[in-house]
Specification:
Alpha-Beta Plaits; 8-stranded mixed sheet; single chain; 24% strand; 15 helices
Length: 409
């Protein structure tokens, strides 16, 4: 049995079988360029796989050494890769410059950092493992542009429409007035900023962002502390936070005893963890009986909150009492991704507000802020469920101005 076969056998024990089968077949049969910087969302679509299960499979595969995970800083204009590293710790510049767009950009984790997977040379050697040997067109396809740019099969013909001239430049001086002072080849080219170029770069497709990966439970479970350096502060322009807490947990321990209460609280944590993961979120931490979770969008957090409430009601009905009363609060906004207490965490006013909003909730009620209510997909969830939020103006501890909040009955 080869090393790759052994690793795939291990992978099958930890993740979805259909996803593993698709990945194994891809490694065995797909052309080299299809195994370089794989866009997981595109892969899932082509193979009719669930996106979250496919992402979990690739994460487990990367942890086993079948694939190399890459964090790529992107130009928001042209979609080119400005920098790439094996961990998010390599995203450590205040600004990244794009030579093609002649612009500088401050990195955010929402759309400027993508996550891709390249097959490991331990499993299969592909041309992109030595990118300086790639033909010019394939270099542009596999290395220069991100997986979010939907490049055509006829990329060479497209490039020819706006390329004035190009040359492969080996290390050392050339007869041209250009000199390569690096130890790698470069590919200087003169392009016309024409409609053809803009059309090529305007073809985009979804990709896994750093924000989405940080809010993925499988990623947090596998990589835990191996995410950010202690002194890193990376901006996220929009992240949704959900806080929960059990009402009257102290009285619960006194009423039913430590052993029964402990089992109930553990059951409640298990249910919440499953729901958060199912709604594409991640549990950041637990604080006593409270949970802090993140979601990429408000609608997923709201869907999770409604499911949590339903599950607590079901458990209480089975026990014929009201032992588990869950208070829930949701808020969306900008924040910083940081490392606190040796684990990946978040910092900022958005986090504080989400926690304070949860403090307004009584049993069964879900409190959310205006950005959540104004999200179109979240509003559709409430409409479909026949729920009418009630607006309130509340003073939140530590927040100077009064805040508009909504109670979901």
């Amino acid at each position: 049995m080869s090393e790759a076969e052994a690793l795939f056998n291990v992978l099958r024990q930890s993740t979805d079988a259909d996803c593993v089968a698709a990945i194994e077949q891809a490694v065995a049969a797909m052309p080299d360029r299809e195994l370089c910087r794989i866009n997981v969302l595109d892969f899932a679509k082509k193979h009719n796989l669930d996106e979250e299960r496919a992402l979990a499979a690739f994460l487990h595969a990367a942890r086993l050494g079948l694939f190399e995970l890459s964090w790529n800083v992107l130009c928001p204009g042209c979609g080119g890769v400005l920098d790439a590293g094996a961990t998010l710790k390599t995203v450590n510049h205040d600004e990244y410059a794009c030579g093609l767009c002649a612009s500088g950009y401050k990195p955010t984790l929402d759309e400027m950092v993508e996550v891709t997977f390249t097959v490991s040379p331990r499993v299969r050697r592909i041309a992109a493992h030595d990118p300086d040997t790639l033909p010019e067109v394939e270099y542009y396809r596999q290395i220069f542009w991100s997986s979010g740019v939907d490049l055509p099969e006829t990329l060479g013909d497209s490039l020819a429409e706006f390329t004035v001239d190009s040359v492969e430049m080996q290390p050392g001086p050339l007869r041209l007035s250009l000199e390569n002072r690096t130890d790698r080849r470069v590919l200087p080219a003169l392009w016309i900023a024409s409609d053809a170029l803009h059309h090529l770069l305007g073809r985009r497709r979804p990709f896994i962002t750093a924000k989405r990966l940080l809010t993925n439970q499988t990623f947090r479970d596998i990589y835990r502390t191996d995410t950010l350096d202690v002194d890193q502060r990376l901006k996220i322009t929009s992240l949704t936070f959900l806080f929960t807490d059990l009402k009257g947990s102290t009285a619960l321990y006194e009423r039913v005893g430590d052993l029964v209460a402990y089992d109930l609280v553990r059951q409640h944590f298990g249910v919440l963890n499953e729901i958060v993961a199912a709604e594409t979120g991640a549990v950041v931490k637990t604080i006593g009986d409270a949970v802090m979770a993140t979601f990429p969008t408000p609608d997923r957090a709201l869907a999770a909150a409604l499911r949590m409430r339903e599950e607590m009601t079901r458990i209480n009905a089975e026990r014929r009492n009201e032992d588990l009363l869950l208070k829930i609060g949701i808020h969306e906004g900008p924040c910083l991704a940081v490392t606190l207490n040796n684990s990946q965490d978040y910092f900022g006013q958005t986090v504080n507000m989400a926690a304070r909003v949860q403090g307004l909730a009584s049993s069964r009620a879900i409190f959310v802020t205006k950005p959540v209510i104004e999200d179109a997909k979240a509003a559709k969830i409430l409409e479909d469920a026949g729920l009418q939020p009630t607006m309130q103006v509340a003073a939140l501890r530590g927040i100077a101005d009064q805040t508009t909040v909504y109670e979901i009955p």
